[in-house]
Design brief:
370 residues; two-stranded antiparallel sheet; globular; alpha/beta; 51% helix; 9 strands
Amino acid sequence: MNSQQKFDHAMSMKPFASRKDIPVFPHTCTYAAVPAGMTQADIFKGNDAWMDAYKKCCEVTGYPDVAFPIGPKTVTYIEQMKVRIPGKDLDDNALFQFVEESIMQESDYDLIVEKGFGAWQTPFVASIQNPPFKGPFLKFKVLKGFIGCGMEVKKNKKFWDSKNIPMMFHSGTAPAFDTFSMSRGMGEFCCDLYDCPEKVKAACEAATPEIIKTGITGVKSAGGNRIAIFAMRSSATFISTAMFEEFAWPYLKQMILAFYEAGITSVVHCDGNWLPMLPYFKELPKGSCIIELDGATDIAKAYEILKGYQVIRGDVPPTLMAFGTPEEVRAYCDKLLDMAMDGGFILGTGCEVPLNCKVENLKALIDSVR
């Protein structure tokens, strides 16, 4: 099978006939610069510079079965947090840094309910740019940024399609709960969940339909059928299961169901410990999600819970990629591959390939299914 066929088979959740049929997806974004001999400042210049690095990286390490669709400049735009940029605020070879800062105000929950998510989002996104967008036509400037991200995805898809390599997703979004957590700041947001819980829920309810509509538009514009949902503040690392059920799950579930009805698979990026939350995903249509795990969730237990329900991607730890040997990486991959033979699995790194990953370790990961 070629890479597209391997991916499609994984999505069918049918058993694999051979370990060679299991697709491999190292989440390669910032790391692409390292084997390419480029700096982080270089790949932050734009999508073309990043894609040049990614192609050179693949020539050194081997091509994956599934490609990461966006470079770091696009990632930092769509994540909607302040960011420190290499070559500008940091050394040329430093990893970009998100800044945890309380920018959203408690009164903004009311604004979202009264005037809509976009009325809040536009000035917020403008304010967190580096440098901030100022002057007239802020809505146009913010929208132009999002449209530009979409055009880059479409351009990248054309390249990967020529190699029969699918991209993991074609647009990205985040649930309102997670967006508010990042925009409000973790400390202030946790206080809000106790001090004004009804305001938070009302804002989530008001924002979710707009988030869904924008997400569907982005995926269809790119000519794809998968959307990343960055639900990174909804795990047991941050909140209790009871809080997840009350504040996060209703709106995350609404998003996944709406995308599924539109023919779109949700790629739920599950950083942190999601083990207590995973049974909820059995409420959804089978095969409506890819659950991306980063190592904080016990992947064997996760696979046991969701086998036959949702696809799992993971989870070779970044510590192993950075400090292990190729033999240790291969041994870890062998364990995952043996576990995954019943189907519905994509071998990958636990979140992103770290900047200090050894090139030979990434090659060992990719070669483990060759």
